[in-house]
Amino acid sequence: MHALLAFDKFKHSMTAAEACAAAADSLRLAQPAWNLQTVPLTDGGEGFAEILTRTLGGDLHFLTVTDALFRPKEAVFGIVPYEHVPVAARERLRLPGCARLAVVEMAQAAGIEGLDESERDPWSASTFGVGELLKAAIEAGADAILLGVGGSATNDLGVGALEALGVIAYGHDLQPRCRLTPQTWKDVASLGGLYNVSNFPPVRIACDVDNPLTGERGATAVFGPQKGLRADDFVSLERAVNKMADRLLGLCGVPEEAFAERKAAAGSGAAGGIGFGLSCALPDVAYISGFPLFADWCDLQTALRGADWILTGEGRFDASSLGGKGPSAILAMAGAGTRVKVFAGSVDEALRRDPPAPLSPADIIAISPPDLPLAQALREAPDRLAAAVKAAFSHL
pLDDT, tens digit, for every residue of 176-203? Predict the structure, then answer.
């Protein structure tokens, strides 16, 4: 019997790799004769750099960067020989002449997971550390960069990252290298400078969000509240975003008549607009769909085809889980006759009453009782996942 364990992260509790490991250890005890394969899931957020790099035997590079609030933080990026990237993934990336591909994860430097609830505020959060990661990747010899942008804490259009790459803000009350955030944009009179931009390698942004930069589906309106934006601050932050976007477009020589089109471009509102800022300033930036790239990179289809059992899951399994990535993508890709079980920290009972194919209600398993305090559930999640897997498979 062959089992594939493909878990997404359990937010605030386990990474995808840790969830896979906990489930695999338990399943080996329950069914020691089974052949197990683990594939931690990612679409560009937490775990992206390490999962993709380890999958293809690349090298991990560790360094200290600044987090979203300019505090020191340990981070990692990967360098992968491009010839190791599967052909299907290379066709998505379109990087002719690349020999060494850097895999960079925005959440390593500007991730919301690294901030306490009380610290989340898009006015004061910066992508400066992401720019530090991009510079470090180039200095490590990368010919191109794959940037995963999930799980961000920022709404700064990538201005912080561009500042780390050499952009200078000028204004009466500003010092050079002032660590810009939306809170200080009001003091900016003009922008100048960039880091070696003519020779900057191609950047591919792994992203499954198609929101524009501004408007009712824009970065501020849709994602700002998740990042700590108060409702009565929306108008002022949206105004600041529009003004800074125009400044960036002007700095980079975009004709004024094209400003509205650039701000309305699909994906420009992802991760607080970092793709918008990078695509303004850098010569070769393109968005690619994150989960399909991951599936090709890890040859997920082959792994699924060979599985008799699939174990998957995430922190919460609800209607938002059915958006075409993570466990729901696993369900959609599972072959006829493959048996699947979903393990989650908590489960929306509506999904248990009307489960998506190929699941039955018994195939959706909440690892924690609904009345368990959240802090305790998060702390105990690894042990509870292991116990749930053991209980589900020991009788087979």
Answer: 556 889 999 988 877 777 656 778 999 9
> Averaged over 277-288, what is the pLDDT?
94
**Cα–Cα dist 172/57, whole Å:** 50
Contact criterion met (CB below 8 Å) for 75 and 62? yes
Q: How many CB atoms lie within 10 A of CB 268?
A: 26
Mapped onto helix, strand or coil, the DSSP state of residue 88 is helix
Confidence band (pLDDT; 50, 70, 90) for 173?
low
Helix axes 16-30, 374-393, angle to 10 degrees: 40
Percent of the chain with pLDDT over 90: 77
Q: Is the pLDDT of residue 174 over 80?
A: no
Q: Can you tell me the distance from the alpha carbon of 383 to that of 381, in angstroms, rounded to the nearest whole number?
A: 6
Token digits of residue 91 = 């066709």
- pLDDT tens digits for range 210-224: 999 999 999 999 999
Residue 221 CB partners (closer than 8 Å, separation 6+)? 215, 234, 238
- How far is the C-alpha of 279 from the C-alpha of 158, rounded, in Å? 10
Residue type present at position 67: D
Q: What is the pLDDT of residue 318?
A: 86
Tell me the domains of the chain and their CATH numbers. 2-39+299-393 (3.40.50.10350), 48-291 (3.90.1510.10)
Say if residues 4 and 21 touch (Cβ distance below 8 Å): no
**Two structure tokens written together for 329:** 């993508």
User: So what's the pLDDT on residue 326?
Assistant: 84
* Spatial separation of the C-alpha atoms in residues 167 and 54, rounded to whole Å: 33
Tell me the C-alpha distance between 57 and 139, whole Å: 20
How confident is residue 386, by pLDDT bands cut at 50, 70 and 90? very high
- Strands of the chain, DSSP E: 2-7, 35-38, 59-66, 72-81, 100-105, 144-148, 168-170, 190-192, 203-206, 285-288, 309-317, 339-347, 364-366
Q: How far apart are CA 373 and CA 395, in angstroms?
A: 30
Q: Distance between CA 292 and CA 302 in Å, rounded?
A: 14
